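COURSE: Structural Biology Practicum
ASSIGNMENT: Worksheet 4, Part C
STUDENT ID: 0417
INSTRUCTIONS: Below are two proteins. For each, the amino acid sequence is given first, followed by its structure token string. Answer the questions at the end about the second protein only.

PROTEIN I
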Amino acid sequence: MALGAEESGRLAALLRDNSEQVTKRWTEIVAASLRGRLSQAELRRQLEELHRALVTTGEQGTIDLDTEHATELRAVLAELSRGWARQGFSATETAIAVFALKEALLELIEARGGEGALRDYVAFAGLIDQMGLFTFESFVRTRESLIADQAEQLLELSTPVVKLWEGVVAVPLVGTLDSARAQVVMERLLQTLVDTGSPYAIIDITGVPAVDTQVAQHILKTVVAARLMGADCIISGIRPQIAQTIVALGIEFGDIATKASLADALRHVLRLSGVETARRQSRRDA
């Protein structure tokens, strides 16, 4: 809801002339709902900033959050929403911080009285409702962004690529392997192969609860990509249940080496690289 020029001017004057009283009461109301989760001084500072932006916008004429001259007011509301979202406050708590201004204004208008007081309050309350909704929407966008960032970070943490031996890296997979995660696995494995120059890579699926056609396709794509980088891949963690499922689904791993455990896969790679042969020879020579 937008305020006309006259209403905006009256609101700006009311807030400006009673700045200390309004901000003090506003802070008290909001602080009561937060139960000490934000310091009184910091809360007062944020609400004073919002108070100044509202006065400045009102002094310029019509207050409408959709217009250009309300840019500063929108920016302050958005910053409040982003800050509170990052600090763990709820969307309701953030919106209440704005809605509480209505109670502070109501007390002030009732005390002043005068003709048209009720009409002004209804108009002011409509604007504050619009500000609260804008704050709520900004909060939701920020939370969605934070959740997306956290999900990406967890995805990266859940797909580590570790160096087991000189020239041997491994990707221990845990949990469901979907398209997004498979892409991260492929990218991290290929980058590690480039960084280390490893000729062997072990993809361990011991922690994968089930292997279906889609999961198998993701694994095969990763193996093909690694081969294009010049690395041989071994799949480990083929438990009896998974082996039966693979056979039942008719999934073919072709010439890709598969092993029951990560230890078996490592021994296989060391045998291919000649490490075990060299050790046995050294024992014979001793």
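PROTEIN II
(use this one for the questions)
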Amino acid sequence: MNTNLSNYNRNLKLKTSIENRTIYSADYAELNVFETRQVAESVNLQFSFPIIASMLTGKKIMHLEGMKSFDFFPGESVVLPSDKKMVIDFPLANSKNPTRCLALGIDPDKIKETVEIFNKNTRIDFENDQHSFDASAVHLANNQQVQFVLDRIFSTFLEDGKAKDALLDLMVKELIIRLLQTKAKVMLLDNETLFDNNRMAFIVKYMREHLTENIQVDKLADKACMSTSNFYRSFKNTLGESPIDYLNGERIKFAKKLIQRTNDKFADIAYKSGFNNTSYFNRQFKRFEKITPNQYRKLVNDNIS
């Protein structure tokens, strides 16, 4: 059990076996930790403010309006606007292995303040969409940057000290920016109208269309009509990752499709995906997917059989 859950358990006073709620408050945020100790279905939950929910232990099945139902596991997060109704199933919860989830509520004024800072430092403007992250829910699977900040926020809420609120204020701002970077990525990848008038969107489209080529950052900067240093900073500020990290992530997605559809050797898959070094491909695959290419192929084959 990690340190955060150990500290949380010391303060836990169980009142109900389904979605028992423990609340921690700060100046601009409220942390709710929910624990369920028995199998349950169709449990309703709703908040009057924007929240970021993150699984700690166990499994939930989430039913959200406008989205296909999905399994919710530890390491994943869901961003929900105000008054978004959730219907939740708990298929595995029991007293020995409870299902735990945290829900972080953030003051809308803090979101607005941070969005304004974000807009000044990127080439994406969210305009009137400053009071919520989206009109609908967003499911973030394996977003390491968001999860890392959430873990730190959870840990800090459980601490005592004069600097607690100041630290939480900084962390909440960082979390909002990480989420905005995620949204920026969605906008750049899914909004075709941006490709004609936004340099970052044009570059993202170019990278996706030339994955298997030898793409250098200075070449991308030239295409964006920017200096290399300015391009690198602008790209990372907007999408939350470096151009090379983004490119490698897209290449790994392509490699996964090849593993699913072919029996090619991994050296061939690495080459077809734009990697000229098999060892580097293996390291990047494990970095993004948390398993090796061989383990991924085994999972694919087990699901087929």
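ANSWER KEY EXCERPT:
Q1: The mean pLDDT is 84.
Q2: The two ends are 34 Å apart (CA to CA).
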